[in-house]
Structures are given as C-alpha cells and as structure tokens.
Amino acid sequence: MFGCSSPKPFGETFFEEIEMKQTVIDVLRNSHTQRVNFIYTAVGGAKWKIYANDFVTVALNIEQGNMDVVEGGVPAGTAKYTIRDDRNSKADTFYIGRNNSTQNIFHSVLVHESVHAIYDVKGIVMPWLDNEAIAYIAQGFYLLNAGRDGDLAEQAFYGYQVAQYYYTNERSDRESTLRQSLLNDPLYKKYIKKNFVGDGIEPPQNQPKAEKNERIHIVKPGDWLSKIAVTYYGDAMKYKVIHQANLQVIGPNPDIIKPGQRLVIP
Ligand SMILES: [Zn+2]
Q1: Over the stretch 103-140, which tens digit does the pLDDT of each residue have?
Q2: φ/ψ of residue 96, rounded to 5
Q3: Boundaries of every domain in the chain
Q4: How many angstroms does the Cα of residue 191 sit away from the middle of ligand 1?
C-alpha cells in the first residue's frame, strides 16, 4: 500500500494504522534512509553519530511492538515521537498527521522523528537543541538522497543545507546556522536549556526512564526493597542495587518505599 492515496472510509482506522506503521518501517529501511550516516558535533564538543543501523533498530522496535505508530493526534504534515504518558499521548509512540506534502518531504519527517526514537531506545539524554539539530540534519540527508521535491519548510531546508555540507566534505559550519535558527524559533526556544525526551515534551520529573531491557516494579502495599530484591534476583542484599538505581524516587533511606512508586529493576 506504499504511496497509495485512496479515500478513507469511516471506521477503518485500525487498517489505516497498520498501513501507516508499515509506511514508517518501509521508510526506515529504504535505501535513502540507509545512506544517512554522519557525525554531529555539539557546541560542548560531544560528538553524536547517526548511521544506517540506528534506523533499523527503530524499525525492529516497531515490528516487535515496543513502539507504536498512531495516525493523527498531531496537525497534518507533522509528526511527533513521545516517550511517556501525558494527557494527549502515550509512551514510545509515533503520532503521524495526515500527509499534506509531497512524498519525499513527508517521509523525511518520519526520518526526523525516528532520530528522537533512536536516542530514546538507546537511553541517551542530551540537550534538546542538539537532538533537534541532529534530527533536522538526518531529515536533510534523507531529502538529499531521495531528491528533494516540492517546497521545504524552513527548518528542513537548513537541515538539507547542513547535510549537503557534510556530503561534500566541506566544513559543516551550517550546523551553527541550524542551531541558531532553532534558537530563534519561538516554538523551540522554551526547551533550549532542557534535556531532550521526545518531541517538544518536557522531561518527566523524578520518574526513571526504562531501558527496553529493564523491568519496572510498581510498589505494592507490604513491599520492601529486600523482598523485591529476592523476587527479581533471589538475593535480598541486591536491595542496594535497586536503591541506587532509584535514588531520585526513593530518596536516601532504602527502608521507606511507598505504594505506587515505579522502580527500575536494573
Ligand atoms: Zn524534532
């Protein structure tokens, strides 16, 4: 059904979501995405690498049901990836608006969001601005590889220019132009000093972020840490490991845990 634009019958959202999910998987595995490969240098000097296998990882997570793809929930022509529950969205989910653009532009937006998913699945927290810039550069590479069609939104255009600079081995000083354009955008400005978790959503407070292979234990009445340690490790003394991994939630005293607390079991 790739590229099909038949009219939407009512009551067929389940079918459409499967179709959209397959579109995202196909884009992440297509040859344009699989050629996206670059290193981004953050202002502080940290280097962040993006390469083909990162997108395969996201596709696998969607295929295995670790990530959802939902059609709608955001304006047409936009998408967002979010790692947590809030009023309007659920964790580990791509929300994808109706495509009101050309196919390459639309697909480049999916590549952009998948960059956020990559850092989520890797458990990497970085300044929001850097994560956003990397996402735009990946989007730019997609457009470069696919052959840009139609008009580009301003940010995507900067991403495209930065990608072009990387591609031709010129100095990638357009990175700073892209960062500056994001800094000047009122939509992004309020997030600039924060760490990144998803697209445009503030970090959850005092809530541990689970790695995909980590377990979560919700504290029940009558639980205490050594009992939980026996359940998961068969060793009461492992309560120290659980305490250390959840210091922000539990606080300094391992004897006090409260029902409803979410504990990461490393
Ligand atoms: Zn983004």
Answers
A1: 999 999 999 999 999 988 888 878 888 889 999 999 99
A2: -130, 120
A3: 13-189, 215-265
A4: 12
